[in-house]
Amino acid sequence: MRRQARSPSENLEQCGHCHPHRDRAGAEAREGTQGWCHRWPPLADASRCGLPLPNRARSFRGAIAAAILLVAAPAAADGAPDGGAGNAGNAGNADDGGAPLVTCVEHLSEGARRPTMKESLSPRGVSGYAAELRVVIVHGKGEVVLPDGFRLQSGSDAAAALLKAGFVIPDPSGGVAPKVTVAPGEGGTSVTTVTLPVVPLPPKPGRNLLELPPLPIAISRASNDFVTLCTAPHPILVEDPIANELDPRIKPNPAGRPQREDWPLARDLAIGVPIGLALVALGALAYRWWARRPKVVKAPPRIPPWVSALEELDRIRRSSLLEEGKRGEHFDRVSDAVRRYLGARYGLETVGLGANGLETTTGEMLDLLKRVRPPIGELPRIKDFLDDCDLVKFARFTPTEEHCLDALASGETIVRKTIPVLQLPSATDGAPVTRHPEASS
Asked: 96 and 156: one domain?
């Protein structure tokens, strides 16, 4: 916030140290740039109290200020310790009446060599604007300058002394932070350049000659020891930001900048949700493709033909065809069950005649059964059964209930007698043992 401009009369009333009619002895006792107030009251009243100066007076005032700087700079250099000295910085003044506050205490390990340090600070600055102190340090390769950064605790004596001298260290998060760059040097050394921003804040308006007190520079050595170097005091002429304005006015605060909050959950959701949806879509497409693949249909286990024939004959026996008087149908179903069994049992479909047990005639079936090896022992019974079935089917013979039951029993006998026999090895002497399949089921 810029200071509010006052009228010339108000300035003269409130500026007692330069007013020709107020506190003349106190004005003569001041040093530095204030020492010439009593010699040039008009210029002092105008310059110290914020009044505009004529062009001639401004140029004359600039010449006097330059001469004062030339005289004050050697005096400060003679009174301040050299960059190689190890004295502590003093931010207190003699007229304060209190003990001086120390801003830096140099520390070197016993037997350690002090690194070479060169410093530079701009001789002029603006109140409230950062000025950069550039420090170049030549040290060993195993040493690290400012390993933890440049920090001054707000409640420490060093920070209080720096503030009393009219300087503050800006907050690194505000955009102006110390910079450290390392480059290889000659003879196996390293050259570290440290740029420290300092903000001059003089306690009085107008032009002020301030002295930057020594600042600590910490160096970590390879032996885990720490070395603290102190910079030399540096004078700087600080100008008022509105020194060149004829009619300074209060300027409004700058427009607020948009504040962006960091929401980790929202950021993670914004990244994770699209990725999750993409993975779900890919999974759905993969499942759809997998579901549409050609499926291998496994054939159901083949039931042996003798099992199917015996089940069919048992269903015929338990049916109510005889009670209903359907003896012809009863006879036909028994004949079909036995014929189907003989065709499947002996593979009549594979003979090459294009016929099976149901489509072949009695003569064709008998001819095919005669070719089976080993010969079928029940072939005469099969021939009699088939002849009886043909008699009922083609000769329009009406069978009695006894004929139906006899045909059913004959069919069951044919099936049971022609079931293949399993040859199992004997457990005692290895001889094959004949076992009926029905015994194992």
From this structure: yes
Instruction: Show Cβ contacts of residue 124 under 8 Å, excluding neighbours closer than 6 positions.
Output: 236, 237, 238, 239
Q: How confident is the model at residue 135 (pLDDT cuts 50, 70, 90)?
A: very high
Cα 178 from Cα 429, distance rounded (Å): 101
- pLDDT tens digits, 210-233: 999 999 888 888 888 888 899 999
Domain that holds residue 20: 8-76
Give bridge partners of residue 144 from the DSSP assignment: 220
Which pairing describes strands 179-184 and 144-145: parallel, antiparallel, or unpaired?
Answer: unpaired
Do residues 431 and 391 share a domain?
yes
Are residues 86 and 232 both part of a single domain? yes
Query: Does residue 91 sit within a domain?
Result: yes
Residue 384 and residue 370 share a domain: yes
The total domain count for the chain is: 3
Question: Would you say 103 and 158 are in contact if contact means Cβ atoms under 8 Å apart?
Answer: yes
Pairwise pLDDT comparison (79 vs 319), residue with the higher score: 319
Q: Which two tokens stand for residue 383?
A: 């021939």
Three-class secondary structure of residue 407 per DSSP: helix
CA angle 294, 296, 300 (to 5 degrees): 150
> CA nearest 178: which of 217, 210, 207, 221?
217
Residues 29 and 157 in one domain: no
Prediction pTM value:
0.40
Query: What is the Cα–Cα distance from 438 to 417, expressed in whole angstroms?
Result: 11
**Rounded to an integer, what distance in angstroms lies between the CA atom of residue 231 and that of residue 87?**
10
Q: Which of 206, 239, 272 is the last residue of a domain?
A: 239
Distances (CA, A) of 180 to 1, 137, 214, 218, 226: 31, 11, 18, 12, 18
Gap between the Cα atoms of 200 and 170, Å rounded: 10
Clarify whether residues 327 and 410 are in a common domain: yes
- Please tell me whether residue 120 adopts helix, strand or coil conformation: strand
pLDDT (0 to 100) of residue 312: 92
At 361-419, the pLDDT tens digits run 888 888 888 888 888 888 899 999 888 888 888 877 888 888 889 989 999 999 999 99
